[in-house]
Specification:
Protein name: Serine protease inhibitor Kazal-type 6
Distance between the termini: 39 Å
Subcellular location: Secreted
Strand content: 5-15%
Pfam family, one: Kazal_1
CATH topology of one domain: Wheat Germ Agglutinin (Isolectin 2), domain 1
InterPro entries: Kazal-type_SerProtInhib, Kazal_dom, Kazal_dom_sf
Helix content: 40-55%
GO molecular function, one term: serine-type endopeptidase inhibitor activity
Shape: elongated
Radius of gyration: 18 Å
Strand order of the largest sheet: 2-1-3
């Protein structure tokens, strides 16, 4: 009997992954049609998407104004930020410094490790 339930668990896990892939595929097509405007709106309206099925597909807005002064040094505070370059930055300050250095090419994908 335990093997039956175990098999069902594997099946449901497979089904969920297939559904998530289908949703991502559909959202990707919508995004391509709307030049990215819809995707960013979805990410803003439903923040849970940034850590769920849309993780890595949402570029979030972040205010880096307080870190524009080159004299500002970053602390070692641990508050990971995942950049659009696939790199995990230790905190907001280190992410913002990298973003400013990139000339705006770097975006915030999500909070937390990549």
């Amino acid at each position: 009997m335990a093997a039956v339930f175990s098999g069902l668990g594997v099946f449901f896990n497979f089904l969920v992954k297939k559904i998530e892939a289908q949703i991502l595929s559909t959202l990707s097509k919508i995004t391509q049609l709307a030049n990215g405007k819809w995707q960013n709106k979805l990410c803003t309206m439903i923040p849970e998407l940034t850590s769920g099925i849309m993780k890595g597909h949402c570029n979030l807005q972040i205010d880096c104004g307080e870190f524009q002064d080159p004299k500002v040094h970053c602390t070692r505070e641990s508050n990971p930020h995942c950049g659009s370059d696939g790199r995990t930055y230790g905190n907001k300050c280190t992410f913002c410094k990298a973003m400013l250095k990139s000339g705006g090419k770097l975006n915030l994908k999500h909070h937390g490790k990549c």
